[in-house]
Amino acid sequence: MFGRLFHRKNRALISELVRTDFKLRYQGSVLGYAWSLLQPLFFFVILYFVFSYLKINKGVPHYSVYLLIGIVLWTFFREMTAASITSIVGRGDLIRKIRIPRWIIILSTSISATISLGFNIVVLLIFVYFNHVHLTPSSLWFFALIGEVYIFAIGISLFLSAAYVRYRDVSYIWDVILQGGFYLTPIIYPITKIPNLTVQKIMMLNPMSQSIQDARYTTIWNGTQTTSQTFAGGWYKFIPYLIILVCFAGGLAYFRKRSRYFAEDI
Length: 266
Description:
The chain is an all-alpha fold.
């Protein structure tokens, strides 16, 4: 399916969809594209001061960067999946009028989220600089982990967007899952703050927990507990990757199965 991505017509269509998405997203906004930076930044400032006051950051070096890495990766995942849910229905007129690969719509949504991620990474690098975080060659793994989050998110996006065509409750259910997932993922607190080891292990099976902890480990602090450390190198450490592959393959299969009925069901 994605082998046709580099066809000239497809590239032009994706480019136009991405531009349209950005225009619609910030239409009528005074600050416009700046909100891509300001939303996660405001959220970070609030959480930083609240949890610094509660001493959650005790024993965590460069806590501001530690926290921001979690927020940036989670925001990318949330924005990519949440925006994709209504993307097929929102492009219903286009689907009815023109015969196009349906997956292009999901891909364009993911690219919009990736562009916003790029802006947020610039802010993250500024924090890294002013906090005197020493980056090493292993820090480049951060971008591989972004790719991991992308694959996980696009698999979920394919499933959610196809399911929403028939079941409009999907958006409400996913919103609840995202809210709960934010607090069940070690974004604002170190995983070591969870006193029960079994609960720690369950939480670290979450691909987002694994990605965020690995990103912190490779970027700012090798004292960050990773999935591999949690399971002492056992085979359980591969479960987050297996979940990602299952979500991607399952989401793709479901999307391809349902896509032939999109024009009728929208």
